[in-house]
Amino acid sequence: MDFTVFAQQIANGLVNGMAYVLIATGLTLVFGVLRIVNFAHGEFYMLGAYITYFVGTLFGLDYIAAAAISAVVVAGLGVAANKLIFWPLRRDHEFTILLSSLGLALLIANGGELLFGADPKYVESPFADEVLDIGTVTLTQQRVLVFAAAVVALVAVYLFIRYSRFGKMMRATAQNPDGAALTGINIGLVHTYTFALACGLAALSGALVGPTVMIFPTIGNWAVLKGFIVVIMGGLGSVTGALFAGLLLGVIESLGGGYISLGFMEAIGYAMIIAVLLWRPNGLFSTARGLR
Amino acid sequence: MNPAAQEILAVSNLTRIFGGLTAVRDVTMTVQAGEVVGLIGPNGAGKTTLFNMLGGSLPPSSGSIRFAGTDCTGAPSHVMGQRGVSRTFQITSLFPSLTALDNVRSAAYRTTRAGWGASILRSAAYRREEAELRRKALEILAFCDLDHRAETLADAMSYGEQRRLEIAIALAAEPRLLLLDEPAAGMNPEEGQRLVEMIRRIRARGVTVLLVEHHMRVVASVCDRLVVLDHGVKIAEGPPAQVLNDPEVIRVYLGREPVDA
Amino acid sequence: MNTNSHGYSVGQPLAIAGGIAALAVLPFLAGNAYLEHLLVLWMLYALLALSLNIVIGYLGELTFGHAAFVGVGAYTSAILSTQLGLPPLLGLPLAGLVAAGFGLVIGYAALRVVGPQFAILTLGFGAILFTITNHWVDLTRGPMGITDIPPMAIGPLAFDSARPTYYLVLALVLATAYLCHALVSSRTGRAFLAVRENAPLAASLGINVFHTKLMGFVAATAIAGIGGAIYAHYIRVITPDIMGVHNVAALIIVVIIGGRGTILGPILGALVYIGLLESLRVAGPLRMVIFAALLTGTVVFLPGGLISLWQRWRNAHRSENNLPATPTGLPPTGLPSTEGGAK
């Protein structure tokens, strides 16, 4: 077995995996803290990529600025979505919330097609063309950026949840929403911040991955599916689980795609999720109530 | 109805452990056919866990359950249901968006036979069974003072009506053993009295009743026998007058919360 | 009270007969081939929606995998007729059987979990089926799809145009509608609804929740497969897109907007969907935005779907004439539709 190829596959897998982790972290936060399964989550990834594109091309801003603005804007959109849909429906049947998040996903995806056009776009980034050699492994700078920025973001999120006042409120709400409300925690605010954080992370992932692929308005479907695969493997509500599961998925896909076939690579994620859900319906890091 | 002096439920050394917590420890008790037995004890005593094991939604960690002579240890809910053990749940025991009549008809599952195929063919057996089912369902609703609400959606009914509907549902399954989980919760004294009447009439139909309850007045009026649990262990058993005056029982309750009578 | 022992109003069979008669003459009123084609599409979507309604409406589980079973049925019949020369008429029941087989396996695996986990599992399974269809070129010709599929034929009668196909699908829709009606007025259907409403309670009443769900799932996939086969023999070309996101969303939209848990709901929903899709053709991608908005709006404001509007009108009308009202959500089939439990 050629070690160089193997190492390259692993490296690619880790990079892809990190992107999945960013998407999945937001998804698992919203579920862990708010008990909401948001099918529209992938759409915020899509918006992250597109807004980066438009801010870059329409306003001529450089990539980093565009990505940052995109993350903030999409975080705001997430807050709006919460305000319009998830917060008003918070007491409703789970089925209702599921369906309305589906409706939101369709709304954003098709609205995106309407506004942005169905043809692919290319997000410009100064890092997209330059490569970096790490030992025997070659990665474009952009892909290294994906990994590095994701790590930074995740560490920041971890510290935030662990040590900040707001992070404690989120954790309290995750463990016991009624109890948290009784101690004076403003659940509405928790909703708002959680969505902002989750959607911002998804957008960041879109902005980072954007320059490495062609973007379509339909990439949200792909993103949310990956997100769910990772979240369920790692356990709904488990942030650490999402980290491991995301990297694992990325690596296995990459190895599968490299050594078996491209078609296999697509199917592997689905096969894994099915295997995991059958073996452990609550995921590998099965969750009690709470954020971990 | 003359209750045969037979044991309908025999629980032997039943234990359930959750991780580090022993919710039910070595509980042994029997229930005779036709009895109304009350299971009491402070919150967290393990009563609902015991119920969950009897109903089949929770497998015991050890010990055994015999129902009507057959070993039922670890049998899942629907098997217990098919054998004739019905239960109500602390949180909604009804089908919210169905009418009261449909709630009761759905509950009569184990008493009917004609399925989808018979319905497609509109066979004579099917039509007969459906007519009989409708009649029986209306009769049960009347028994629970709900016949005037037959066409009302369950989640549109008042709280008291819903609690009565829950019992109607449990009866529709024509159980031999009925497990009532805090049927008097949230009821005022008048409603509690109505409940006592209904439980008496249920017993008169030949159904054995085991109930978990905190309302001591209800428990004292309707139960033949009480079993007291504390921290998962049976600490007393006997007729209400005796048990409720047992100093150990009083200590266990008063030491924690006032007796709700 | 003008009701028989099942609680139906006496005028009901008459209304149903009238409705069927109206549906039967529609192609003649249509006037042109294009409208007749739309009628076929309406009936096809109605059939598929009725089958999906068994899972979403009666069992209360959201599934994203239904389009995949439609595709399985379509590809089965297409492959059998183009590569093995099997008469399409035989392909129809075989498509249903193969789809049901997939439904059995996938259902057996997926129905162990509920709610969002189940939905995601079906999404995953659906995606796998799509991927396999797309990549197994030897069997399915991949993205190029299967073309020149022979039209359905019963003996000398060829269903190679819209009008005869319409009647074929209409017959299937009516048959499925009757099957669903028979279901909900039977003990089996009551078990379905019980499982939907309160699974632990249903179990304690003797209902085997898993078997009940599996039965409904397999029935739904069988009908979906048959619908897919008919589609294949009518449109004469199929590609993996039949299992794609668009169809997945479309079927769910039809059921929800029309009214889940009812029989008229999916049929009405299909009419609205095809109608809007065609009449707003100029609007392009805006159409899907409208549907998404309708879906979300329905879920939030009108959980019973469009059919519930008609039911409310009918109840109001009854109270004016001092006729007994059926409770909101009671369709003519005798069992209530769901209001989704929304409070």
Write up what this structure looks like:
The complex is a heterotrimer of chains A (292), B (261) and C (343). Chain A is mainly α. Chain A contains 11 helices and 4 strands, in the order H-H-H-H-E-E-E-H-H-H-H-E-H-H-H. In chain A, a hairpin with a 2-residue loop joins strand 2 and strand 3. Chain A is globular. The termini of chain A are far apart. By secondary structure, chain B is an alpha/beta fold. Chain B has a 6-stranded mixed β-sheet, with helices on both faces. Chain B has a 4-stranded antiparallel β-sheet with strand order 2-1-4-5, covered by helices on one side. Chain B is globular. Chain C has one domain: Orthogonal Bundle (ABC transporter involved in vitamin B12 uptake, BtuC). A two-stranded antiparallel sheet of chain C has the order 1-2. Chain C is globular and about 55 Å long. With 343 residues, chain C is mainly alpha-helical. In chain C, strand 1 and strand 2 form a beta hairpin. Chains in contact: A-C, B-C. The interface between A and C is large, with 43 and 44 residues.
Net shape of chain A? globular
Structural classification of chain A: mainly alpha
Number of strands of chain B: 10
Main β-sheet of chain A, in a few words? Answer: 2 strands, antiparallel
- Oligomeric assembly: heterotrimer
Q: How many domains make up the 3D coordinates of chain B?
A: 2
- Number of DSSP strand runs of chain A: 4
Name the overall outline of chain B. globular
**From the 3D coordinates, which CATH architecture of the largest domain in chain B would you assign?**
3-Layer(aba) Sandwich
Question: What is the alpha-carbon Rg of chain A in Å?
Answer: 19 Å
Number of helices of chain A: 11
Side-by-side strand order of the widest sheet of chain A: 1-4
- The CATH class name of the largest domain in chain B reads Alpha Beta
State the largest interface: A-C, 43 and 44 residues
CATH topology of the largest domain in chain B: Rossmann fold
SSE ordering of chain A: HHHHEEEHHHHEHHH
Give the helix tally of chain B.
Answer: 10
